[in-house]
Write a structure and sequence with these properties.
This protein has about 300 residues and is of the alpha/beta class. It folds into two domains: about 5-80 and about 220-305, Glutaredoxin (3-Layer(aba) Sandwich), CATH 3.40.30.110; about 90-215, Glutathione S-transferase Yfyf (Class Pi), Chain A, domain 2 (Up-down Bundle). The chain contains ten helices and ten strands. It has helices at about 15-25, 40-45, 65-75, 90-110, 115-120, 125-140, 150-165, 180-195, 205-215, 225-235, and strands spanning about 5-10, 30-35, 55-60, 60-65, 220-225, 255-260, 265-275, 275-285, 290-295, 300-305. A ten-stranded mixed beta sheet has the order 5-2-1-3-4-9-8-7-6-10, sandwiched between helices. A hairpin with a 7-residue loop joins strand 6 (about 255-260) and strand 7 (about 265-275). The protein is globular. The chain binds glutathione. Glutathione (GSH) binds near residues 12 and 262.
């Protein structure tokens, strides 16, 4: 099997969720650093306009959203607890809340002048201005209502307090990490490591858990150029589907887009859809056919090619 390629940037919390899961599983990977905002030329070819980060690739299969990337890592590592599929309802509910409401509360409460200075230092003043403009535009088309200012901080503190109660073992749902630990980790990483907030000091069990999660590191990876990702897609064909698609739109032109924020549409032909996954077939002259994978939950499929999100 070809190595998994991760498209990401250092300050992205959801990318940190996957880097840490890669560290935990020990799966070797290849790293492509992308800009903090579109345009991202190679990803546009591979993922067809999906704009969120991270994106993963194995040969001619492209995985959008950490829910499907985690499914792949769970499968490769033989650790089903890293996938949301088949988890008990309390884990599913925790992950859903943590990856949306708490994620935004962490970003809103920790994004201050210091964070902006970090971004300028990491990239440039011009890039930071473009970044702010991009995120304001993204916020305008978002369907998610986010807590801001002091309310966001209250939510983060309540979350840490509830985690403090949950941590009767080394990890949130037992003595081994599961998908919930990685979902909880990336927001707290943003607040504590990037935002340099000391809020975690009041929650000693969360602090120890955070240190355990951080110790997984990012595993063993090689940095490659984005063009190598295109070559990997070109030299492969999408893997065979493991079961037939029963969706009535199968084989027809469709548009797929996230239903929350960053709702940029991806157009192609529906190769597969069930209650867990959507796979869109796309063809581009520089790579041939690729299969782009999305989770079913949180994504809308519409018939035809519609340039605007609904
Ligand atoms: N549900 C998505 C959320 C990903 C997400 O929101 N990523 C942020 C970065 S942490 C993003 O894409 N921001 C806009 C961008 O980078 O263009 C997932 O699980 O992958």
């Amino acid at each position: 099997m070809q190595d998994l390629i991760l498209y990401h940037y250092s300050m992205s919390p959801f990318a940190e969720k996957m880097r840490t899961m890669l560290g935990y599983t020990g799966i070797p990977w290849q790293s492509v650093t992308v800009r903090e905002m579109p345009p991202r030329k190679v990803l546009t070819i591979l993922a067809g306009g999906y704009r969120k980060i991270p994106v993963a690739q194995i040969g001619a299969d492209v995985f959008c959203d950490t829910r499907v990337i985690s499914d792949e890592l769970a499968r490769i590592s033989g650790r089903p607890e890293l996938s949301l599929t088949g988890q008990p309802q309390d884990v599913i509910d925790f992950v859903r809340k943590t990856d949306l409401e708490i994620f935004f509360a962490c970003v809103m409460s920790a994004s201050d002048k210091r964070m902006l200075k970090k971004l300028i230092k990491e990239t440039s003043l011009w890039n930071a201005l473009l970044f702010l403009r991009d995120r304001i535009a993204m916020g305008k088309s978002s369907r998610v209502r986010t807590a801001r200012g002091p309310k966001a901080k209250v939510l983060v503190l309540e979350h840490m307090s509830s985690m403090e109660q949950m941590l009767t073992n080394d990890f949130l749902f037992g003595d081994q990490p599961c998908i919930a630990d990685f979902s909880a980790y990336h927001g707290i990483w943003f607040v504590t490591d990037l935002g340099e907030k000391s809020w975690i000091e009041d929650y000693p069990k969360v602090k120890d858990w955070f240190a355990r999660m951080k110790a997984f590191g990012h595993g063993s990876y090689k940095t490659i150029k984005d063009k190598q990702g295109l070559e990997a897609a070109k030299s492969a064909t999408p893997r065979a589907l493991d079961r037939a698609s029963k969706d009535e739109l199968t084989g027809k032109p469709v548009t797929v887009a996230p239903d929350d924020y960053g709702r940029d549409p991806v157009m192609g032909t529906l190769a597969f859809a069930d209650d867990k996954r959507i796979i869109v077939s796309r063809t581009h002259k520089s790579v041939g056919e690729v299969h782009v994978h999305f989770p079913r939950q949180g994504f809308a499929i519409t018939a035809g090619h519609n340039k605007q999100p609904d």
